[in-house]
Amino acid sequence: MTPKINQDRRRPRRHRPPSGPISGASQSPSAPVSRTPQSVQPSGGAPYSQRHDGRRFDRGQKFDGRQKFDRGQKSIIVARPTPLGRLATKTENIGVLSELAPRANGEKLRVYALGGLEEIGRNCTVFEMGNDIVVVDLGLMFPEEDMPGIDFIIPNVEALKDKLKNIRALIVTHGHMDHIGGIPYLMDKLGNPPLYTAPLTAGIIRKRVEEFPRNPKINFVTVEHADARFNLGANFIFEPFHINHNISDAFGAALHTPVGTILITGDFKFDYTPVNDEPADLNRIALFGAKGVLALMSDSTNAESPGHQISERTVGEELEKIIANAPGRIIIATFSSLLTRAQLILESAEKHGRKVLIEGRSMNANIELAHQLGYLHYQPGTIIEEGDWHKLPPEKLILMCTGAQGEKNAVLMRIANAEHRFVELKEGDTVVFSS
Ligand SMILES: [Zn+2]
User: What stretch(es) of the chain map to CATH 3.40.50.10710?
Assistant: First the structure.
């Protein structure tokens, strides 16, 4: 799959980033390196022509991922530390494969999925080489209509039961249930390996396992920087890279092995103007391609459809128009984990003098957690308690709730069926499905 990224960046790109902070920044004299992958190509002008310390980088140099580099030479490509880049590339080491290659010893790398292929949910993929096993994601799947009596489905991890001592890590790419939902039920069965994930995802998992007090305590290793590297046994080095998703703190995982690098994208999109987040780290992704990728494991909902996902920022502009013009109360249904959308709703509410009541247990829990961890921002008093709902005039109210897809137990369904404890629809209300 290596050539894919390489070829893509040599073609003219259909979807250019809007002229905003990204392209603006790349033109500024103090910032010679563009963030976009096409800038990596040798004929593309200034990009990568300088290290941050001013020494020239040799443009003629080609990486095929198999060259040997002295340890002293390792850190040779330095992308511009970008103003937006909490997780953006700072330094890039290229010695990984030569470090690992002597260890191959004819061992084979085995990759197998215990869930998540050709189905939506219970994502779980296993990477095994020699005496080392790395598991990526441990999700659950909600039942289909022909599975009465089933609450949810989790991966079958029996295949690993005799190899627990070899499991070096569970890497969790982001906090959606189809990636974390199996953890309370299966972590013990995997021998409770260290769990590598980002801070928000760790918070969501902690919250979830609170309901399972008898489980062994999870040993979290927090992944906070894209230039972090983790040795997982003798055969794997894990390197996260930042991507966009509709939940904050999602990352893709590069797994360097003695036989090559595997890129696992996790669920992802590219958003050049994300909310509460930085754009995906295209520099780093392009660098993986330049160095050589053995396999790209990529999955994204509706990836078969041509076109480009609209930016969360654009969704926010549309939402704000509705909030600005609605005559009475506004009831907005969205997903409990769609925290960027919650941020947009809270921002618009503040701008237009409305207060927000949040209905739905999971939505309340996620918003509280994200606020505590600094991923969600709002003024004190913007979020109101249920007792305030009938005290404020209709044009000052927003109800943010679950049920954007008509889920049968969600708040919106209860309101629609007149079964909600204190909210009933009336004339002048605006109902928004924001999925
Ligand atoms: Zn997801």
Answer: 312-433
342 alpha carbon – ligand 1 mean position (Å): 16
Residue ranges, comma separated, of all CATH 3.60.15.10 domains in the chain are 100-276+292-299
35 and 282 Cβ atoms separated by less than 8 Å: yes
**8 A C-beta contact, residue 161 and residue 167:** no
Token reading at 419: 């079964």
SS3 113: strand
CATH 3.60.15.10 fits 100-276+292-299, yes or no: yes
Report the C-alpha dihedral over residues 117, 120, 121, 126, rounded to 10 degrees.
Answer: 20
Residue-wise pLDDT tens digits, 187-244: 999 999 999 999 999 999 999 999 999 999 999 999 987 668 899 999 999 999 999 9
Question: What residues contact residue 306 under an 8 Å CB cut-off, 6+ apart?
Answer: none
Q: 124 alpha carbon to ligand 1 midpoint, in Å?
A: 13
Provide the residue type at 105 as one letter. N
Spelled out in words, what is the top-level CATH class assigned to the domain 312-433?
A: alpha beta
φ, ψ (nearest 5 deg) of residue 336: -65, -25
Please tell me the predicted confidence (pLDDT) of residue 104: 63
363-390 per-position pLDDT tens digit: 999 999 999 988 899 999 999 999 999 9
For residue 197, how far is its CA from the centre of ligand 1 (angstroms)? 14
74 C-alpha to ligand 1 centroid (Å): 34
Q: Is the dihedral of CA 419, 416, 407, 200 positive or negative?
A: negative
Mean pLDDT of the chain: 79
C-alpha 246 – ligand 1 centre gap (Å): 7
Taking the C-alpha atoms of residue 386 and residue 355, their distance in angstroms, rounded to an integer, is: 11
